[in-house]
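Hi everyone, sorry if this is the wrong subforum. Our group has a chain we'd like a structural model of before ordering constructs, and none of us has done structure prediction before. Sequence below.
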Amino acid sequence: MAFGRRNEEEIILEDTKVWVCSSDECNCWIRDNFKSKETPTCPICESPMEPSTKELQVIQNHSSSLK
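Answer:
Right subforum, don't worry. Here is the predicted structure as C-alpha cells:
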C-alpha cells in the first residue's frame, strides 16, 4: 500500500524577483516571469505594483513573451 508515502523529490528554493501590490489592504504578488506587462498593475485591486524578491520554489514559464 502507498498510504502515507511522501514525495521524495527535493524542492529547490531561490530568491526570485516578484511584483508586490502597493495597497496596504491587498497582499497580491506575481512572479516577474509571469507578469503580463512591463510594469504590472494588481490583478485584484488595480493598484500599482512594486518590484521585490521572495524565496520561492524554482519553476519555469516557457510561454513568457516578456523578459
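For your construct planning: Residues 17-57 form one domain. The CA atoms of residues 8 and 18 lie 28 Å apart.
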